Amino acid sequence: MTVKRVAIVGAGMAGLMAALALARRGIACDIIEQATRLEEVGAGLQISPNSARILAELGVLKTLEPVWNEPDHIALASGLSLRVLANVPVGRFARERWGAPYGVLHRTTLQRALLTAVEQQPLCSLHLGIRLDHPDMDALASITGSRPDLIVGADGVWSQVRTIVPQAPIPTFSGNIAWRLTVPSRKAPPALKINAVTAFLGPGAHLVSYPLKEIDGYNVVAISTGLNPGQTWQAHANTKQHDLLMSQFSLWHSQIQELLGQAKDATFWPLYEVERGQWHNGRDTVLIGDAAHAMMPFAAQGASMAIEDAARLAIHLGRPGTLPHRLSAFEQERVARTDKVRNRGAFNRFAYHARGPVRLARDFVLSMRSPQSLAADLDWLYGFNAADP
């Protein structure tokens, strides 16, 4: 069966990327989104070489490079002393070793670039302001005017498309929340470096910062245990929640404490994970991105995995065989890849939040690793080429 038309539910990063990748192979795409206009919630985003390579192939990267930052290195530092424990080179090194850049940018910048590319693609049609309580073939056909050959669920961790996939993954709250704030350059403490993505590690929590050219400042995300505010990407903190945040960083360096102490208007969101389950219904529906494999951000690969999904789905749909066979092959391949990334994130979580003797051992081991050896550990991740057969 030749796939000629696809209905994509969700116009976030996964949905827009899937539309571009499929249209490039001659497949018409209807993108259905419940929001009346596309607004990306959040601030910063890290684009690693494995996903930057795909953006380049689709012609999107060239619009991002003039406005993003390419840090020189990724630094792992102690949140208690601010001492740098290890560095992973990126910048020019990333382009030479992995054949693509490592960039940081505002999420809105990427969203706008993808939206512009979709709007310029004649095979893509965007349908906004449409809520689908039961996104089956009949409902989608009534919206688009034609029956799609395939439904792609790109509607995130709380996916509605997931409800029509038997034994689909189940989202669960991880017990962690992520605090989000931006800091103008003129107010940033010395610990925040203009040429680096810095992960500050501490007992039971960690904090990541990197520069955003678009706001002349820094994106800061602090991850710690917290209460679940429900299904939201932007909960507003009250005094009790902010006090809980400060208590979890009470042993940290004064620069970090002062930074968080001034962030009483910061927003936060709950970190949900999606358990293993079926990604497709065996006929005509498949999940991608967070709908299929939402994971903790400890490997900074959530966006990259969604971008990879889009590219690989397009390749699998272009292969011979029945549609169920192609969907099964896509799922099998991507489950293996995302499981490996998830395991890396779990290891990072253990290492980043280590306490007591384990923390001391971690600091010693990191201090003994050369930047080049740490980079080599990431070849399997950053060197991945989604265009490979």
Automatic annotation (TrEMBL):
Keywords: FAD, Flavoprotein, Monooxygenase, Oxidoreductase, Signal
SUPFAM superfamilies for the chain: FAD-linked reductases, C-terminal domain (SSF54373), FAD/NAD(P)-binding domain (SSF51905)
Cofactor(s) needed for function: FAD
UniProt key word Signal: yes
Domain FAD-binding: 6-341
Name of the protein this chain belongs to: NAD(P)-binding protein
Pfam families: FAD_binding_3
Signal peptide: 1-23
Native organism: Endobacterium cereale
PANTHER family: GERANYLGERANYL DIPHOSPHATE REDUCTASE, MONOOXYGENASE
One Gene Ontology MF term: FAD binding
